[in-house]
Amino acid sequence: MAEKLAIAAMREMTNDELAAKITELEKERFGLMFKAGTEVLANPMDLRATRRTVAQLKTLQAERLRAQKA
After folding, report:
1. How much is the pTM?
2. Which fold has domain 7-69?
3. What ranges in 1-70 are assigned the alpha helix state H?
4. Most buried of 12, 16, 21, 38 (most Cβ within 10 A)?
């Protein structure tokens, strides 16, 4: 199950931690998508929560990149 991360907790992560967390959640999302294609998920909202958390982390990563360039 995707863990619920608060935005404040995400902002405290370093860039390396963000990248590692994105990689971990992308693997989890792939597994959930594969499982959803072959059987019924116990909680289908896990797929949505994982996808949204990855999007939030990538947005934060992009914000930091833009801030460095400015």
Report:
1. 0.88
2. Helix Hairpins (1.10.287)
3. 7-12, 15-38, 45-69
4. 21
